[in-house]
Amino acid sequence: MLKHLSTAYALLPRCLLSPTPRSLSRTCRLPGRMEAAVVRCLPGEPKLTISFCLGESQKHMLRDQDEALGKVLTRISNTIAKNHTKAKKSKKNRDQEPSEAAEPAVVKLFFRGDEVPDTLPNSEAWQDGAVLQVGEVKYNIQRNAPTFTTAELPVSLMAGFPVCPKLEVEFGDLQDCEFMWFKENSTNTSPKAAKEFPAQDGGWIQVGCERVHVPSNQDIGFRLKLHCTPKDGNRSGPSKELVSEGAVEAGPGVCTSDNRHAYTSKVAEWPVVRVVSYNILADIYAQTDLSKTVLYPYCAPYALQLDYRQNLIKKELAGYNADIICLQEVDKGVFVDSLTPALDAYGLDGVFRLKEKQHEGLATFYRSSKFRLLSRHDIMLSEALMSDPLHSELLEKVSENRDLKDKILQRSTSLQVTVLEDLMKPGRKVCVANTHLYWHPKGGNVRLVQMGVALQHLSHVISDVAPGAPLVFCGDFNSTPNSGVVQLLGETAVPQQHADWSSSGPEETCCMELISTFPPLLSACGQPAYTNYVGGFHGCLDYIFIQPESMQVEQVIPLPSHQEVTTYKALPSVAHPSDHIALVCDLRWNP
Question: Of 476, 500, 542, 579, which residue is the catalytic one?
């Protein structure tokens, strides 16, 4: 029973639930208008929920679907009588007057003008359009009406940066929902004031009507309010009001991505595909003492905070108008609570691969108007090496050095593989790979083995589920242009004499020739001077590799200038959210 209750309660419209610290909601009763009662009833579920406002309190009733209607109506009547008795007792205590016995309230359900029989089961009685009469108040029954099951505003709001609410709707479509944004007239911004005065009449000015709102400098110091109505076509559900916990704050001014957005102001036209690869710096790494005191001591502490960096990341990604985005170092919570709602508002769906034993992983987003997700083929590279017969030959060679084998097997490095179908030309597919290879500067031998496993797996996936599909391979390979990994990708082979085989010393040396399963791949963005720029290191570690026989580079979006990167000494900074720089390019996909 408790399990069913908690499940049903979680699915109730948030406007019918208590406010959370992150957002405040309220329902408004309009004079002369029939009240709404929301009924959630799905086939196969044992319970239904009935939610409506009774007096000054919100009622949420969880009842059996096969229960007789009369029991519910009696329960409502008894609740009213009980409340009436309590009110009378309270008045008696104040005025010392005798209380009168409460009269039972008339509670009936009507459908198309006829009273619904008390013996009818709940699942049949509570029809859409029915009318519940409780005393003199009437309620219009909305069965399975469009309902926000999740509705939250971000904690941090900055002028010039998109505010993307986290919204999930049941029985509706976010594309159909209506939105109205307001800013308050006064600068009372304390959280306590937000709770006590969530929406004073006349205290708000409308400033927008889109799902995403970008506050202006004129909004600095003011809270925002979002009034949103869930819809499915012309059918509407109960509206929801959210008031920001804090006020809009000033942004950092010019960001390193602003000039780049001049090249990506519009979505690329088919058959051109815009691809982004970006290590966004996981919060679990940005907030360590090592990061604050050793890796990024030059970065203002507030600029390492997740809420601040997420504002910059969402604005940057939205401004690229990309068709495919591959991200590394994505915190699970960031994917669910920040990136997914934000990028969904800009037309992208996403998938996530959590790195084993870690709280971060890989995310791939794709434009839903251009691509359809066909299949996923993610692996953990060390597990695949040990268990998949595809890699038996490589495993045999690696096993010759036990120390190296143990080090490789300790790594939780993953490969995210997503097969997409081109909606503009059904049947045409592309294989998108995304990875973040082992980080250690002396781990070239480990990375070579990891890449060997990745290429073998990708070759098998393409031949098995998407024959002829081109490969787009993105990621933070932690490999400079002269590394064995880049040579393997670009030249298809790494000789046994390559220096990377002994990168971690003689104890872990492994001499073998490694052959790629693909023809030579092309680094679409070339070999920039650096894609990672921190206080003690700068170099090219990130890549987007393509098959040049299937795709040609139409445009490479220029990286930020050296002056922009070093304005605050290094990365990350108040103007750049990560220690890496996003790679962005337009690829012409041969029809």
Answer: 476
